[in-house]
Structures are given as C-alpha cells and as structure tokens.
C-alpha cells in the first residue's frame, strides 16, 4: 500500500504543471478573453452565422474567475461598441451593437435612428440591402429588408442609468432592445473585437478564409 500511495504522489507531481496550465487556461478564458459562436444572422452583415468571435472580457470590468461577479469596473460601453451579454430577458447570450447610452433619448422613424434629437446619417452601398450608418463618427454597415414591420419605428425613449439600448445590425431581423428592453451594465460580458474563424454552415462547415481574424467594426 505505501508503494501505491507513493506512486500516486509522484504521478500528481509529474502532472502538476500540466494541471496548473489547464487551470490557468480556463481562468484566463473566464476572466481575460473568450470566444462566442454566433448562431443567427441578427448582426449581418457585420457578423454572419458560423463566425467565432473573440471577446475581450476585460474591456469593461475584471471579474472573479469562473463567475460573473464583477471585481473592478474599468470602463463603460461606448456608442458603436459590439457587446456580448447574458440576457435574463431573453434567457440566452446575445451579441448586439450599443446604440443608446445612459441618459440618451432615442427614437426610430422608418428604420432611421434619432439620437438626442440628431438624425443619424445613412448612405446606400452597392448592395441595396447594405447601408452605412454613421454612429459616433464611425461608419459601419447595417442591413435592411424592405418590408414594413412594427420594429421599424419606436417613439422616443430615455435610456435608464446603468442601462444600454442595443440593436442588431440586421435591423429588421433582430431580437434586441426593441424586444427585450434595455440591457443592464451588469449583464454585459465584454466587447467583441474580431472574427477568429468562420465556418460556413451552408457549405459543410468549411472555413471562410476571407473572414479569418477580420476586425469587427
């Protein structure tokens, strides 16, 4: 029996570095960065189905490893940020773009945003469904499907303290703040930075090499 115990102790010692490396890897993924598989097209054309996106989990706060408990707030989301959050209202993890900050007055008229009384500028691209939206002095693509829907319009709302109004870039096909309401800061897990790899579900999950490591704007 002593020989068996000695073997177990030696075996644990031999694998200690490996076990510690695994622990650090999972702790880092929990606290520093993570990746998220995008299952729907609600963020098209910016993010497409099958994208694996890199999420900076330290963009806004430092959390206790393996939990969602915030330890230190570092920054707050800015208009135009693409954020990943665990939505209690939707009972799932979502990725959307921040449109309204705390205290903002936001309205939408025929798919055109009005932020604090300023009508947002749009420019039609070569693709009739892809339009450039100028938000926070940065341009990004949004997608519209030309059919009248209830979510094309909403009256002016004021974003509450510590909450954000988020929308999908695929404006007519996204369950966002128009459906689930404002997003509390406490639910936001991090900021999406780039596509790590993209696998095409309509082509045997082959990689879309053109999207590999592409930045998210």
Task: Describe this entry's structure for a reader.
- This protein has helices spanning 2-31, 177-180, and strands at 33-37, 51-56, 61-63, 70-73, 82-87, 92-100, 105-109, 112-115, 118-119, 122-124, 130-135, 138-143, 154-158, 163-167, 183-184, 188-200, 206-207.
- It starts with a helix and ends in a 10-residue tail after the last strand.
- With 217 residues, the chain is of the alpha+beta class.
- The strands form 4 sheets. Strands 1, 2, 5, 6, 14, 15, 16 and 17 form an 8-stranded antiparallel β-sheet that branches. The protein has a 4-stranded antiparallel β-sheet with strand order 9-8-7-13, with no helix packed on it. It has a 3-stranded antiparallel β-sheet with strand order 10-11-12, with no helix packed on it.
- Helices cover 16% and strands 40% of the residues.
- The longest helix has 30 residues, at 2-31.
- The chain contains 2 helices and 17 strands.
Radius of gyration (Å): 21 Å
Q: Low-confidence parts, pLDDT < 50 over ≥5 residues?
A: 18-30
What are the secondary-structure elements, in order, as H or E? HEEEEEEEEEEEEEEHEEE
Mind summarizing the main beta sheet?
Answer: 8 strands, antiparallel
The termini sit apart by: 62 Å
Shape: globular
Which structural class matches the secondary elements?
Answer: alpha+beta
Strand fraction equals 35-45%
- For the residues shown, what is the average pLDDT? 85
Helix content: 10-25%
Continuous helix count: 2
Number of strands: 17
Keywords:
40% strand, 8-stranded antiparallel sheet, alpha+beta, 217 residues
Write the layout of secondary structure elements.
Elements: H1 2-31, E1 33-37, E2 51-56, E3 61-63, E4 70-73, E5 82-87, E6 92-100, E7 105-109, E8 112-115, E9 118-119, E10 122-124, E11 130-135, E12 138-143, E13 154-158, E14 163-167, H2 177-180, E15 183-184, E16 188-200, E17 206-207
